[in-house]
């Protein structure tokens, strides 16, 4: 299954992400409920932030468009992005007293993990359309849109404007559906706004459940991956990737090709972070011009590295780490 995606050439930046910047507080006392957890380790979090950090770790010139709180957590996030080589010129600071979203993670067992979200008055959802830098998008080969940023205004309008800029400048749009129920008011609202983004996207990545959210009004009652792919090829999509957890992933191309990606073995600490690291590894491969199958393999290896780690952002691997993981796994 060949990679026919033609990312625009000759641009100063490879990748720009728009959306959530938050803080992960991952339980240190794992394999127990959060009621029994007394200490946490702080990491930068937020799905698009994790993916952007992953892309930068893999050697890409990356930037972020978002909003942080005017407090210690906001300053920590900005410093971390900067220290990881990410251009933060597009990250604005809220001046209204908004706070940083917190993601408390509970690791009851390697397979039983959950996230307790504190998202009231989160700064990231206050990103306004006039704060979206058209030049950042025009100068980038790809724009990553993370679905949760569509959950509330004015972030919703900011994302829709970013999509317009991307289409105007030929910047490839990657829509990571990223459904997090805590921010939405209803599944119907979610489906309507997800649709507006998916219709303008070149690559759509999501789990089966996330596509079901997106396609709520589209009659895919059988939850068919093939029906999902065909629907989005009718819009702008060139690639549709459906993630299936430990059962791997499947990719469909507009030209009719498809490929089922396997997983790599992992000494799982926690399962979350798999999607973000998979997306970073997969997009890295596509932007290198690799085949879809090899890109999926890279994403899967990156995912296994991150789910074998305590953090998401901190654990995002370099290309050398992914290469070594693949090499070791193939000889195991
Ligand atoms: N238990 C596992 N073992 C090995 N690889 C896994 C496992 N779970 C997920 N992966 C890999 O990560 C990819 C994405 O995982 P998943 O389908 O859970 O996405 P997600 O739900 O978006 O992840 P997240 O939990 O970060 O939200 C899978 O397609 C697979 O390649
Ligand atoms: O995206 C979120 O809000 C949660 C993330 O911060 C966390 O790292 C995670 O769940 C990654 O998938």
UniProtKB/TrEMBL annotation:
Carbohydrate kinase PfkB domain residues: 15-318
Record keywords, A-Z: ATP-binding, Kinase, Nucleotide-binding, Transferase
Domain of life (superkingdom): Bacteria
InterPro entries named among the record's database cross-references: Carboh/pur_kinase_PfkB_CS, DKG_kinase_firmi, Myo_inos_IolC, Myo_inos_IolC-like_sf, PfkB_Carbo_kinase, PfkB_dom, Ribokinase-like
Residue ranges that the Swiss-Prot or TrEMBL entry lists as coiled coil: none
Gene3D superfamilies tied to this protein: 3.40.1190.20, putative 5-dehydro-2- deoxygluconokinase
EC class: transferase
GO molecular function list: 5-dehydro-2-deoxygluconokinase activity; ATP binding
Pathway: Polyol metabolism; myo-inositol degradation into acetyl-CoA; acetyl-CoA from myo-inositol: step 5/7
GO BP term, pick one: inositol catabolic process
E.C. numbers: 2.7.1.92
One Pfam family, short name: PfkB
UniProt KW Nucleotide-binding keyword: yes
Catalysed conversion reaction: 5-dehydro-2-deoxy-D-gluconate + ATP = 6-phospho-5-dehydro-2-deoxy-D-gluconate + ADP + H(+)
Transmembrane segments: none
Function noted in UniProt: Catalyzes the phosphorylation of 5-dehydro-2-deoxy-D-gluconate (2-deoxy-5-keto-D-gluconate or DKG) to 6-phospho-5-dehydro-2-deoxy-D-gluconate (DKGP).
Family membership: Belongs to the carbohydrate kinase PfkB family.
HAMAP family: IolC (MF_01668)
PANTHER family: 5-DEHYDRO-2-DEOXYGLUCONOKINASE (PTHR43085:SF49), HEXOKINASE FAMILY MEMBER (PTHR43085)
Protein name from the UniProt record: 5-dehydro-2-deoxygluconokinase
Source organism (scientific name): Paenibacillus lycopersici
